[in-house]
C-alpha cells in the first residue's frame, strides 16, 4: 500500500503555544506537498483513552493510504516504544501506549514497526518532544514512499488497554460511561451491536430513568434527556441542546443499564 500523501494529526497539544506549528514545520520541510488535516489538538491532557476514541471515530472516513499521526504521550521519553502500524487501508504512527487499541481490534494488521532507525529522526532528538523529532519526520518520509521496514524492526509486541466490558445478564445490559464529549454527552461502552435490533428498551443511568432508546436528538423537547446510539456506534446519554453531564452530575465510570421490556 502506498501513502496517498494525506496525513491527519490528533494530539493533546492545544491551540496555544508552538507545539502543533513545530510538528507541521517538520512535516512540510521534509515533504512540502503533504496534505495535513487536523482532527483535533484538544484531547484532554494525557487522556490516552480519549485520544483512542477520537481516532476510532475519525480514521475510517479517510482514503486508503492515509497516514494518521496521533500523539497523546504522558510517558514521552520513557520505556514505551514508538510504532508505525500498517493495516490494509491506513498507516498509524505514535507512541505504543494504548492509543491504537481500537485499531488492533478492528483492522487487519499487516505489520508493526518499532521505530528505532535514527536515520529518519531529527538530529539529537529531544526526549520530551518526540512528536516533533521522531514521529513527524518518520511520517513525512513515509509519505515520500520510504518502505516502512526502513524505520526499524518488525515487532509482534504492542500495548492494548483493556476496557471494562458490558455485562449481559437475563434481560439487562450493564455498562458504564467511558467518555464525556465537549457537549456533555455521556458516551458508554455499550455498542449498538450488543443491543441488536431490539427496540423495546428502558435506559437508566444510576437512579435516573431516561426512557426508551431514541433515534436522534430532536426527537425530544429542548432540555430533555435522551438515550440514543451516537455516530461512533455507542450508546450515549444526551440532552437536546443541553449538557447531560451537568444535569445528571455524571462522571466517567458511572453505570448505565438497559432493560429489555417484556411485551
Quaternary organization: single chain
Rough outline:
elongated
Largest sheet, described in full? 8 strands, antiparallel
How much helicity do the residues have? 10-25%
CATH topology of the largest domain: Rossmann fold
- The fraction of residues assigned to DSSP E strands is 25-35%
The helix/strand order is: EHEHEEEHEHEEEEHEEEEHE
Derived structural class: alpha+beta
Low-confidence stretches: none
Which class of the largest domain in CATH terms?
Alpha Beta
Number of helices: 6
Mean pLDDT reading: 94
Q: Report the end-to-end length measured between terminal Cα atoms.
A: 52 Å
* Secondary structure tally: strands: 15
Count of all domains: 2
Compute the gyration radius: what is it? Answer: 20 Å
Q: What characteristics describe this protein?
A:
263 residues, alpha+beta, Rossmann fold, Elongation Factor Tu (Ef-tu), domain 3, 2 domains, 8-stranded antiparallel sheet
